[in-house]
Amino acid sequence: MKLEMENKPLSVFNFSSLTDIVLLLLIFFLLTSQFVIQTGVKVKLPGAKNNEQAAPTRLIVTLNAKREIYIGSKKTPLDLLPAKLSQIMKKAKEKNLIIRADKSVDIDLVIKVIDAAKGVGIERFTIQTEKETY
Q1: pLDDT tens track for 90-106
Q2: Which CATH number fits domain 47-131: 3.90.190.20, 3.40.50.740, 3.30.420.270, 3.30.1360.120?
Q3: Domain ranges of the chain
Q4: How far is CA 122 from CA 2, 23, 69, 79, in A?
Q5: Given phi > 0 = left and psi -120 to 50 = alpha, else beta, which region is 133?
């Protein structure tokens, strides 16, 4: 008894497996990509013609018009600021502090925040601004 084997070319390609793989890759990249961190504290940022987008970081300090200090979205008193920054800095890879200060905040408070950050080893500071349109 002789069995005949024929190698026929595949005439129909099933795209369903390819669609599954593309969908899984899309979900993977959406879940692993980094998103821009925005805090929930509303401030009126000062304007600048030539502002640059700051790199996303965990080290964001917001100063609102009431002279309240927030790390992320958590209110923090000035005397506890160095301890909170050092805790966050242990987890963060970068040492760049983004300062989101309201237009009406005195420069004195901004300098106190920078001084507290320098005390825990933060080396770079970025003051966030909005793009001015003339």
Answers
A1: 887 777 888 888 888 88
A2: 3.30.420.270
A3: 47-131
A4: 80, 41, 17, 17
A5: beta
Residue 12: CA atoms inside 13 Å, Cβ hemisphere, count? 2
- Residue 26 CB contacts under 8 Å (≥ 6 apart), including other chains: none
Those residues with Cβ within 8 angstroms of residue 110's Cβ, 6 or more apart along the chain or in another chain: 63, 99, 101, 127
Digit-coded pLDDT (tens) for 66-123: 989 998 888 999 999 999 988 888 887 777 888 888 888 888 999 999 999 999 888 8
Phi/psi at 133 (5° precision): -115, 130
